[in-house]
Amino acid sequence: MRTPVRDHVPSRPTWRCRACGIAWPYSPAKLLLLARYRGDMPGLMVHLVTLREEAAAQLAEHDPGVQSTDLHRRFTDWMPVRSP
Ligand SMILES: [Zn+2]
Description:
By secondary structure, this protein is mainly alpha-helical. The chain has one domain. It contains three helices and two strands, in the order ββααα. It has a two-stranded antiparallel ribbon with strand order 1-2. A hairpin with a 4-residue loop joins strand 1 and strand 2. The longest helix has 22 residues. The site of zinc ion has 5 residues, from loops.
């Protein structure tokens, strides 16, 4: 089993990009998510909330300084808000 090195996906439990080590999700990752969920913003929101909850649980142990408001801003607050 080989680990892909250049995939820009979050590593757990640090929630930094596996490829560049930047706190995930960062701009290119967000653009990828927006492209992948184009036309399905509710689906993207569900996806991000799920990830945020997972990150909150893992970061609580790994990095207790991380606040839930920071995670909200980082994971979900950047979503383009659009009424259906
Ligand atoms: Zn990356």
